[in-house]
Design brief:
Blueprint lengths: L3 H11 L11 H14 L1 H15 L9 H20 L2 H4 L3 H23 L1 H4 L1 H6 L6 H27 L11 H26 L3 H14 L7 H4 L6 H7 L3 H13 L12 H26 L3 H4 L1
Length: 301
């Protein structure tokens, strides 16, 4: 008489062998990883929904909590920097200006912060079943986009409230800037989530790096302040090498209609296009590093 254990062993014997480590070949391995991720897209969708439900479980306001932090930051910066320090006198529609930058930055920071700890947070699944480990950082990006969409609706409504909604070709900056943001955020998320499995201090270093990056981007101050006469030219040149700086400026070009007369880097769209091309290469390299490191995830966890 065949036992349940023997039946299970027989079924497992018919399953194809799957590598947990890097797929062979630098280019062919990338294609195999992409096909593997696409084959598990339904699972990734379930992980996104699980992330959203777990985040707001048993809360009364639910998804509205995704607006509380950016709105609180908006209020703090608007009062402290806009009113007390007088920044609002030099920046028209200062509230729209700040909220535009915060909307972009919150998406970038959320993907990197949550993505860095995504493998460790899902250690139970990693150790028990086979699945492409990339789905965990990617599911974080999916839930981040959901929150971003809510904030974007609020931002768009605010532009109508002040009587200056975005129109025309300025909308072309949004998909370009968003693509650059997602490419760099997912690339760093993949790399940092893999390294964090081996070195848990990474998640704390990420928090410090994001805090510094926030103040290195024109979110609570304008690009015009960087162009002051007492600021060396090389500082302004180095400043725009930061892709997230260009992303935030791209968002501002879309939604901050009152800032049309404010200075912006020359050829902003072209700069974003170059950043997108570079970011895709970085994303590819980060994925290959992730694939190389994932073979020992289960042992390390």
């Amino acid at each position: 008489m065949t036992t349940t254990s023997e039946l299970r062993t027989a079924r497992l014997a018919t399953e194809p062998f799957r590598l947990a480590g890097p797929r062979p070949g630098f280019a062919s391995g990338t294609l195999t990883s992409i096909r593997d991720i696409l084959a598990h897209r339904e699972l990734m969708g379930l992980l996104v929904r699980r992330e959203l439900k777990a985040r707001y479980k048993d809360s009364t306001l639910g998804f509205l909590w995704s607006l509380v932090r950016p709105l609180a930051l908006l209020l703090i910066y608007y009062i402290a920097i806009g009113k007390f320090l007088g920044a609002a006198r030099d920046i028209p529609d200062f509230a729209i200006f700040i909220y535009t930058g915060l909307t972009a930055w919150q998406l970038f920071a959320e993907i990197i912060t949550a993505g860095t700890g995504s493998i460790v947070a899902n250690s139970g699944l990693v150790k028990k079943v086979y699945l492409p480990r990339e789905v965990f950082p990617l599911s974080v990006a999916g839930s981040g986009l959901f929150n971003f969409a809510i904030q974007l609706v609020i931002l768009l409504g605010a532009t109508f409230a002040v009587g200056k909604p975005p129109t025309g070709l300025r909308w072309a900056y949004l998909p370009l800037a968003l693509a650059v943001l997602l490419v760099f955020a997912v690339a760093f998320s993949l790399l940092l989530s893999a390294v964090n499995v081996y070195l848990r201090d990474v998640q704390y270093l990420v928090e410090i790096a994001l805090m510094i990056g926030f103040w290195m981007s024109p979110i609570v101050y304008s690009w015009g302040l960087v162009l002051r006469e007492d600021v060396p030219d090389w500082v302004a040149s180095a400043y725009v090498l930061n892709p997230i700086t260009l992303v935030i400026m791209g968002f501002q070009r879309t939604f901050w209609v009152a800032g049309d007369g404010q200075p912006v880097p020359e050829d902003l769209a072209a700069r974003l296009g170059i950043c997108l091309a570079i970011g895709l290469v970085i994303l590819w390299l980060c994925q290959r590093v992730f694939a190389r490191l994932q073979s020992n995830f289960a042992q390390e966890l």
